[in-house]
Design goal:
There is one protein chain. This protein is mainly α. It has seven helices and no strands. Among the domains are: 52 residues; 55 residues, no CATH class. 81% of the residues lie in helices and 0% in strands. Helix 5 packs antiparallel against helix 6.
């Protein structure tokens, strides 16, 4: 074991002190018997006053409830009134007003953006429909439909063939009209 050190660092544990003895010593040294009696009397008076106040409060709460019932004020109606009051207070707040204005502005801008987008798409479709490629495609489709109608119509009078033959001949005719076939034919021909 280490030798005992002197000064601030004691190596032995502190002795436990009896709490009852400490409280008695503190009370006995600071409060006299006369003061103790006065405090006890004051404590009794305060407890009586508290009891009386509780009784008065209970009777006032009962009367309050009776008056509400006679007036037809129910807890649900009170809740509605509180909600309406809170809603009104919130709507009159500056934060609500600013948020509402911001959302209104955002909604208007979004609506304008969608309107612009719709008109842009319509304009693009119009441009596409007026383009040379679309017109060429439209003309080929019209001629193919006309050919099919003609051949099916003459088929009923004899010599036109059945519907399947008309479709295959129309498919052959339209494949010969495509630019890729014309391109390959021109490259295959001798110059």
């Amino acid at each position: 074991m280490e030798p005992r050190q002197q000064g601030l660092l004691e190596t032995e544990p502190l002795q436990e002190v009896d709490e009852d003895m400490v409280s008695e010593v503190d009370l006995n040294s600071s409060v006299t018997d006369e003061e103790r009696e006065e405090m006890n009397n004051e404590l009794v008076k305060l407890e009586e006053e508290i009891s009386t106040l509780r009784q008065v409060l209970d009777s006032k709460e009962k009367r309050h409830l009776e008056l509400k019932l006679k007036l037809g004020i129910t807890p649900l109606s009170e809740l509605r009134q509180n909600f309406n009051r809170s809603w009104t207070d919130m709507q009159s707040s500056t934060v609500y007003k600013k948020t509402s204005e911001t959302l209104t502005t955002a909604g208007q801008k979004t609506s304008a953006a969608f309107t612009n987008l719709g008109s842009s798409i319509s304009r693009r479709f119009g441009d596409m429909r007026n383009s040379q490629s679309f017109r060429s495609f439209e003309e080929k489709m019209e001629s193919t439909v006309t050919t099919i109608k003609t051949k099916v119509g003459t088929g009923a009078g004899g010599g036109g063939g059945n519907f399947e033959e008309v479709l295959s001949s129309a498919a052959n005719a339209s494949s010969q009209d495509t630019p890729t076939n014309n391109l390959t034919e021109s490259t295959e021909r001798p110059c």
